[in-house]
Amino acid sequence: MNLIGVTSLAILSLLGTTIGSPVGNPQEFSEDFFEDLPDAQATGAPYGTETGGPFVDRSTIVEAVVAQATATDAPGADPALTATPNQPTESPKFCKRTVSSEAITPGGYFLVFSGLSGATQASSYLTFHSIPAYNPDLCATRCDSIVGCRFFNLYIERNASGEVIKCSFYSLKSTTSAATNVGQFRNGFHVTINNSNGYAKYQAFPAVEGFAMERLRGSTNGKRLNLGDPDPYMGYTSIQTSDPSICAIACEQKTAYNSRHLSPSNTYRACNFFNFYSLNKNGEGYMTICSFYLIPFNSSYATNHGYSSGGNIYTIAESYGYTRNLQQGDGGIVTV
Questions:
Q1: What is the DSSP letter of 256?
Q2: Do 196 and 213 fall within a single domain?
Q3: Where in the sequence is the signal peptide annotated (predicted)?
Q4: 201, 223, 254 - which closes a domain
Q5: Per-residue pLDDT reduced to its tens digit, 264-281
Q6: Given CB 3.0 to 4.6 Å as the disulfide criterion, which of 41, 42, 243, 263 pairs with 148?
Protein backbone atom coordinates (compact mmCIF):
# COMPACT_ATOMS: atom_id res chain seq x y z
CA MET A 1 0.00 0.00 0.00
CA ASN A 2 1.35 3.40 -0.92
CA LEU A 3 1.75 5.84 1.92
CA ILE A 4 1.81 9.59 1.95
CA GLY A 5 4.78 10.83 3.93
CA VAL A 6 6.28 14.16 4.79
CA THR A 7 7.60 16.78 2.41
CA SER A 8 11.36 16.58 2.78
CA LEU A 9 12.52 19.99 3.94
CA ALA A 10 16.09 20.26 5.28
CA ILE A 11 16.60 22.00 8.62
CA LEU A 12 18.99 24.91 8.24
CA SER A 13 22.64 23.88 8.42
CA LEU A 14 23.56 25.98 11.45
CA LEU A 15 25.08 23.24 13.57
CA GLY A 16 26.63 23.43 17.02
CA THR A 17 26.37 26.53 19.20
CA THR A 18 25.16 29.77 17.65
CA ILE A 19 25.74 33.09 19.43
CA GLY A 20 22.79 34.86 17.80
CA SER A 21 21.36 38.37 18.02
CA PRO A 22 21.53 40.91 20.85
CA VAL A 23 18.55 41.42 23.12
CA GLY A 24 15.73 43.31 21.43
CA ASN A 25 16.58 42.20 17.90
CA PRO A 26 14.34 39.60 16.29
CA GLN A 27 15.64 36.25 15.19
CA GLU A 28 17.73 36.65 12.08
CA PHE A 29 17.03 34.94 8.75
CA SER A 30 18.54 35.34 5.33
CA GLU A 31 17.47 35.71 1.74
CA ASP A 32 19.27 32.43 1.13
CA PHE A 33 16.76 30.56 3.26
CA PHE A 34 13.86 31.32 0.94
CA GLU A 35 15.96 30.75 -2.15
CA ASP A 36 16.93 27.32 -0.81
CA LEU A 37 13.41 26.20 0.06
CA PRO A 38 12.58 23.11 -1.98
CA ASP A 39 10.14 23.77 -4.78
CA ALA A 40 7.51 21.31 -3.60
CA GLN A 41 5.92 19.58 -6.59
CA ALA A 42 2.40 20.72 -7.41
CA THR A 43 0.38 17.58 -8.01
CA GLY A 44 -3.20 16.37 -8.15
CA ALA A 45 -5.28 13.33 -9.00
CA PRO A 46 -3.96 11.35 -11.98
CA TYR A 47 -5.89 10.81 -15.20
CA GLY A 48 -7.64 7.53 -15.78
CA THR A 49 -10.22 5.22 -14.29
CA GLU A 50 -8.49 4.35 -11.01
CA THR A 51 -10.93 4.65 -8.12
CA GLY A 52 -8.60 6.00 -5.46
CA GLY A 53 -5.16 7.24 -4.55
CA PRO A 54 -2.64 6.35 -1.83
CA PHE A 55 -3.71 5.89 1.78
CA VAL A 56 -2.76 8.80 4.05
CA ASP A 57 -1.17 7.02 7.01
CA ARG A 58 -0.83 9.10 10.18
CA SER A 59 1.76 6.84 11.82
CA THR A 60 4.05 7.15 8.80
CA ILE A 61 3.74 10.94 8.89
CA VAL A 62 4.49 11.01 12.63
CA GLU A 63 7.55 8.78 12.19
CA ALA A 64 9.00 10.97 9.44
CA VAL A 65 8.31 14.25 11.30
CA VAL A 66 9.92 12.96 14.50
CA ALA A 67 12.97 11.79 12.54
CA GLN A 68 13.34 15.23 11.00
CA ALA A 69 12.74 17.09 14.26
CA THR A 70 15.33 15.07 16.17
CA ALA A 71 17.96 15.11 13.44
CA THR A 72 19.52 18.17 15.05
CA ASP A 73 18.70 20.71 17.73
CA ALA A 74 20.78 23.62 16.56
CA PRO A 75 19.57 27.22 16.76
CA GLY A 76 19.07 28.74 13.38
CA ALA A 77 16.90 30.89 11.19
CA ASP A 78 13.21 30.18 11.41
CA PRO A 79 11.30 30.26 8.13
CA ALA A 80 9.93 33.53 9.45
CA LEU A 81 8.69 36.42 7.37
CA THR A 82 8.75 40.21 7.65
CA ALA A 83 7.02 42.65 5.30
CA THR A 84 3.42 42.05 4.24
CA PRO A 85 3.18 42.00 0.43
CA ASN A 86 0.07 42.34 -1.67
CA GLN A 87 -1.73 39.14 -2.65
CA PRO A 88 -1.42 38.11 -6.32
CA THR A 89 -4.45 38.51 -8.55
CA GLU A 90 -6.23 35.33 -9.61
CA SER A 91 -6.91 34.46 -13.25
CA PRO A 92 -10.19 32.52 -13.52
CA LYS A 93 -10.65 29.64 -15.95
CA PHE A 94 -14.43 29.44 -16.24
CA CYS A 95 -16.35 26.82 -18.17
CA LYS A 96 -20.07 26.57 -18.85
CA ARG A 97 -22.05 26.45 -15.59
CA THR A 98 -23.89 23.15 -15.24
CA VAL A 99 -23.99 20.72 -12.30
CA SER A 100 -21.25 22.69 -10.57
CA SER A 101 -23.43 25.78 -10.17
CA GLU A 102 -26.27 23.76 -8.66
CA ALA A 103 -24.14 21.80 -6.21
CA ILE A 104 -24.94 22.43 -2.53
CA THR A 105 -21.98 23.37 -0.34
CA PRO A 106 -21.49 20.81 2.47
CA GLY A 107 -21.87 21.87 6.10
CA GLY A 108 -18.59 23.03 7.63
CA TYR A 109 -17.18 24.06 4.23
CA PHE A 110 -17.27 27.15 2.05
CA LEU A 111 -17.10 27.42 -1.74
CA VAL A 112 -13.75 28.75 -3.00
CA PHE A 113 -14.36 28.51 -6.75
CA SER A 114 -16.96 27.03 -9.09
CA GLY A 115 -17.39 25.95 -12.69
CA LEU A 116 -13.75 25.87 -13.75
CA SER A 117 -12.27 23.89 -16.63
CA GLY A 118 -9.14 22.94 -14.69
CA ALA A 119 -8.41 20.66 -11.71
CA THR A 120 -6.29 21.70 -8.74
CA GLN A 121 -2.54 21.07 -8.82
CA ALA A 122 -0.87 21.93 -5.48
CA SER A 123 2.05 20.84 -3.32
CA SER A 124 -0.37 20.08 -0.47
CA TYR A 125 -2.00 17.21 -2.42
CA LEU A 126 -2.86 14.17 -0.29
CA THR A 127 -4.87 11.68 -2.36
CA PHE A 128 -8.03 11.30 -4.48
CA HIS A 129 -11.17 9.20 -4.76
CA SER A 130 -13.72 8.61 -7.51
CA ILE A 131 -17.41 8.97 -6.64
CA PRO A 132 -20.58 7.74 -8.39
CA ALA A 133 -22.35 11.12 -8.56
CA TYR A 134 -21.51 14.82 -8.63
CA ASN A 135 -22.16 15.38 -4.91
CA PRO A 136 -19.89 17.56 -2.75
CA ASP A 137 -21.16 15.79 0.39
CA LEU A 138 -19.47 12.59 -0.76
CA CYS A 139 -16.15 14.42 -1.07
CA ALA A 140 -16.61 16.19 2.28
CA THR A 141 -17.26 12.90 4.09
CA ARG A 142 -14.08 11.45 2.61
CA CYS A 143 -12.07 14.60 3.42
CA ASP A 144 -13.25 14.47 7.03
CA SER A 145 -11.84 10.94 7.30
CA ILE A 146 -8.37 11.89 5.98
CA VAL A 147 -5.83 13.16 8.49
CA GLY A 148 -5.14 16.86 7.92
CA CYS A 149 -7.50 17.30 4.93
CA ARG A 150 -8.73 20.90 4.71
CA PHE A 151 -9.65 21.35 1.04
CA PHE A 152 -11.10 19.27 -1.78
CA ASN A 153 -11.56 19.74 -5.51
CA LEU A 154 -14.62 18.11 -7.12
CA TYR A 155 -14.59 17.82 -10.91
CA ILE A 156 -15.53 15.72 -13.93
CA GLU A 157 -12.81 14.21 -16.09
CA ARG A 158 -13.83 13.22 -19.62
CA ASN A 159 -11.51 10.56 -21.01
CA ALA A 160 -11.60 7.85 -23.67
CA SER A 161 -13.57 5.54 -21.34
CA GLY A 162 -16.24 8.12 -20.57
CA GLU A 163 -16.69 10.50 -17.65
CA VAL A 164 -15.16 10.03 -14.21
CA ILE A 165 -16.17 12.18 -11.22
CA LYS A 166 -13.26 12.76 -8.89
CA CYS A 167 -12.52 14.33 -5.52
CA SER A 168 -8.91 15.32 -4.91
CA PHE A 169 -7.85 16.19 -1.37
CA TYR A 170 -5.34 18.71 0.00
CA SER A 171 -3.97 19.76 3.37
CA LEU A 172 -4.11 23.48 2.49
CA LYS A 173 -6.72 25.67 0.82
CA SER A 174 -6.16 26.28 -2.89
CA THR A 175 -7.59 28.97 -5.16
CA THR A 176 -8.58 29.48 -8.78
CA SER A 177 -4.99 30.04 -9.88
CA ALA A 178 -4.05 26.47 -8.85
CA ALA A 179 -6.65 24.91 -11.20
CA THR A 180 -3.98 24.36 -13.83
CA ASN A 181 -4.71 20.79 -14.88
CA VAL A 182 -6.82 21.52 -17.96
CA GLY A 183 -6.38 18.12 -19.60
CA GLN A 184 -4.08 16.64 -22.21
CA PHE A 185 -4.00 14.28 -25.19
CA ARG A 186 -3.64 10.65 -24.14
CA ASN A 187 -3.40 7.96 -26.83
CA GLY A 188 -4.94 10.31 -29.36
CA PHE A 189 -7.86 11.32 -27.15
CA HIS A 190 -8.18 14.79 -25.66
CA VAL A 191 -8.82 14.32 -21.93
CA THR A 192 -10.67 17.36 -20.52
CA ILE A 193 -11.72 18.70 -17.13
CA ASN A 194 -15.05 20.41 -16.47
CA ASN A 195 -17.32 21.52 -13.62
CA SER A 196 -14.41 21.94 -11.24
CA ASN A 197 -15.44 23.21 -7.79
CA GLY A 198 -13.19 23.86 -4.79
CA TYR A 199 -14.31 23.67 -1.14
CA ALA A 200 -12.38 24.59 2.02
CA LYS A 201 -13.11 23.87 5.68
CA TYR A 202 -14.33 26.54 8.06
CA GLN A 203 -12.96 24.51 10.95
CA ALA A 204 -10.10 26.06 12.89
CA PHE A 205 -7.07 23.98 13.74
CA PRO A 206 -7.86 21.78 16.73
CA ALA A 207 -6.63 22.01 20.29
CA VAL A 208 -3.82 19.64 21.30
CA GLU A 209 -3.92 17.74 24.58
CA GLY A 210 -1.30 19.00 27.02
CA PHE A 211 -0.89 22.34 25.24
CA ALA A 212 -2.66 25.71 25.43
CA MET A 213 -3.48 27.15 22.01
CA GLU A 214 -3.49 30.78 20.85
CA ARG A 215 -4.39 32.00 17.39
CA LEU A 216 -1.72 34.31 15.98
CA ARG A 217 -1.76 36.99 13.28
CA GLY A 218 1.60 35.93 11.88
CA SER A 219 4.39 33.46 12.54
CA THR A 220 6.43 33.63 15.73
CA ASN A 221 9.69 35.56 15.64
CA GLY A 222 11.24 34.33 18.90
CA LYS A 223 14.19 36.02 20.56
CA ARG A 224 16.21 36.03 23.75
CA LEU A 225 14.33 37.75 26.55
CA ASN A 226 17.51 38.67 28.43
CA LEU A 227 21.17 39.11 27.57
CA GLY A 228 22.93 35.80 28.10
CA ASP A 229 19.80 33.68 27.66
CA PRO A 230 20.17 30.69 25.33
CA ASP A 231 18.80 31.05 21.83
CA PRO A 232 15.19 29.84 22.24
CA TYR A 233 14.81 28.58 18.69
CA MET A 234 15.07 24.80 18.23
CA GLY A 235 14.55 24.36 14.49
CA TYR A 236 11.52 23.37 12.44
CA THR A 237 9.92 20.63 10.38
CA SER A 238 7.51 20.78 7.45
CA ILE A 239 4.64 18.38 6.90
CA GLN A 240 2.13 17.81 4.13
CA THR A 241 -0.77 17.31 6.47
CA SER A 242 -2.37 19.99 8.65
CA ASP A 243 -2.45 18.31 12.06
CA PRO A 244 -0.84 20.21 14.97
CA SER A 245 -0.90 17.12 17.19
CA ILE A 246 1.85 15.69 15.00
CA CYS A 247 3.96 18.77 15.77
CA ALA A 248 3.26 18.24 19.48
CA ILE A 249 4.57 14.68 19.22
CA ALA A 250 7.69 15.97 17.47
CA CYS A 251 8.14 18.62 20.20
CA GLU A 252 7.98 15.95 22.93
CA GLN A 253 10.28 13.60 21.07
CA LYS A 254 12.73 16.44 20.47
CA THR A 255 12.95 16.91 24.25
CA ALA A 256 13.31 13.17 24.81
CA TYR A 257 16.11 12.99 22.23
CA ASN A 258 17.95 15.90 23.84
CA SER A 259 17.62 14.30 27.30
CA ARG A 260 19.59 11.34 25.96
CA HIS A 261 22.30 13.61 24.60
CA LEU A 262 23.37 15.85 27.47
CA SER A 263 25.67 18.84 27.19
CA PRO A 264 29.06 18.76 28.97
CA SER A 265 27.38 20.61 31.85
CA ASN A 266 24.72 17.86 32.17
CA THR A 267 21.89 19.96 30.77
CA TYR A 268 19.56 19.56 27.83
CA ARG A 269 17.16 21.78 25.84
CA ALA A 270 13.44 21.09 26.29
CA CYS A 271 10.69 21.99 23.82
CA ASN A 272 8.02 24.03 25.61
CA PHE A 273 6.32 25.78 22.69
CA PHE A 274 5.73 25.33 18.99
CA ASN A 275 4.31 27.57 16.27
CA PHE A 276 2.13 25.73 13.75
CA TYR A 277 1.43 27.69 10.59
CA SER A 278 0.60 27.44 6.91
CA LEU A 279 2.96 29.06 4.43
CA ASN A 280 1.58 30.32 1.12
CA LYS A 281 3.71 30.83 -1.96
CA ASN A 282 2.37 33.26 -4.56
CA GLY A 283 -1.08 33.06 -3.02
CA GLU A 284 -1.31 29.25 -3.00
CA GLY A 285 -0.99 26.84 -0.08
CA TYR A 286 2.66 25.72 -0.13
CA MET A 287 3.58 23.89 3.07
CA THR A 288 2.77 23.53 6.75
CA ILE A 289 5.55 24.33 9.21
CA CYS A 290 6.15 23.57 12.88
CA SER A 291 8.76 25.77 14.60
CA PHE A 292 10.01 24.68 18.03
CA TYR A 293 11.14 26.83 20.97
CA LEU A 294 12.57 26.52 24.49
CA ILE A 295 10.08 29.01 25.90
CA PRO A 296 6.56 30.16 25.00
CA PHE A 297 5.88 33.32 23.01
CA ASN A 298 2.55 35.14 22.96
CA SER A 299 0.88 36.92 20.07
CA SER A 300 3.04 40.04 20.48
CA TYR A 301 5.93 38.05 18.98
CA ALA A 302 3.93 36.92 15.92
CA THR A 303 5.39 39.71 13.82
CA ASN A 304 6.26 37.84 10.62
CA HIS A 305 3.62 38.16 7.92
CA GLY A 306 5.16 38.12 4.46
CA TYR A 307 8.37 38.12 2.48
CA SER A 308 9.41 38.43 -1.15
CA SER A 309 12.34 36.37 -2.40
CA GLY A 310 13.55 35.27 -5.82
CA GLY A 311 10.44 36.58 -7.55
CA ASN A 312 8.16 34.65 -5.18
CA ILE A 313 5.82 36.09 -2.55
CA TYR A 314 5.50 34.16 0.73
CA THR A 315 2.67 34.85 3.15
CA ILE A 316 1.32 33.31 6.34
CA ALA A 317 -2.17 31.84 5.88
CA GLU A 318 -2.99 30.59 9.38
CA SER A 319 -0.83 30.51 12.49
CA TYR A 320 -1.28 29.09 15.98
CA GLY A 321 0.96 29.02 19.03
CA TYR A 322 0.90 25.95 21.30
CA THR A 323 2.34 26.30 24.82
CA ARG A 324 3.10 23.21 26.87
CA ASN A 325 0.95 23.19 30.02
CA LEU A 326 3.77 21.79 32.17
CA GLN A 327 6.86 23.84 31.39
CA GLN A 328 10.22 22.08 31.60
CA GLY A 329 13.49 23.45 32.96
CA ASP A 330 14.67 26.97 33.70
CA GLY A 331 13.98 28.92 30.53
CA GLY A 332 13.78 25.58 28.73
CA ILE A 333 17.16 24.36 30.03
CA VAL A 334 16.85 21.23 32.17
CA THR A 335 19.69 20.35 34.55
CA VAL A 336 20.14 16.67 35.34
A1: H
A2: no
A3: 1-20
A4: 201
A5: 999 999 999 999 988 888
A6: 243
